[in-house]
Amino acid sequence: AQTVTQSQPEMSVQEAETVTLSCTYDTSESDYYLFWYKQPPSRQMILVIRQEAYKQQNATENRFSVNFQKAAKSFSLKISDSQLGDAAMYFCAYRSATGSSNTGKLIFGQGTTLQVKP
Amino acid sequence: KAGVTQTPRYLIKTRGQQVTLSCSPISGHRSVSWYQQTPGQGLQFLFEYFSETQRNKGNFPGRFSGRQFSNSRSEMNVSTLELGDSALYLCASSPGGVNTGELFFGEGSRLTVL
Fold this sequence. Notes:
A: about 50% strand
């Protein structure tokens, strides 16, 4: 069974600084997706960034980028130029790409609460 | 395009009662998944419905059930409520194909069991 681990329950960063959230996962599959989701206090989960395992290039979305190390099964999220609106809980998630039956099933880490200090 | 809509947003029940939660996916999405979020267990997958059929199920007791209608709207039901069922229940939709990427989440239904 696949597992996702986020070892940092809480992180804080100064506004305009850079912060990195860690995520490791365990799987025997070779084809999968990895995601970072953001859950602000309003509770709606929003996709931050996604990475397909077959792509070696790290995904980037504006101020958000990942460091995907497939062999090490590591998937960290870097937030540059942190803003007050980045304060939220961040979840790392895994989805198998093997077979259609796994399409809607995400395996989540425990989450990291990010505090942004003005 | 309207997002994923969940109703009700908040509800309070007592032990032994049952509850039904509703989810309307994004237009055109055929897959609806349900998740339970609690402080202790985090986010756990309940089940997924695609084209009115359950095609994936998490490790929850039979008191948790769901269904999907022909318009892709989904409902989940929890019978004989227990205190431990208090949680935020999240619904997520996706187009449903094999190469589907991310899921799109609703705001959730906050269930409190007294």
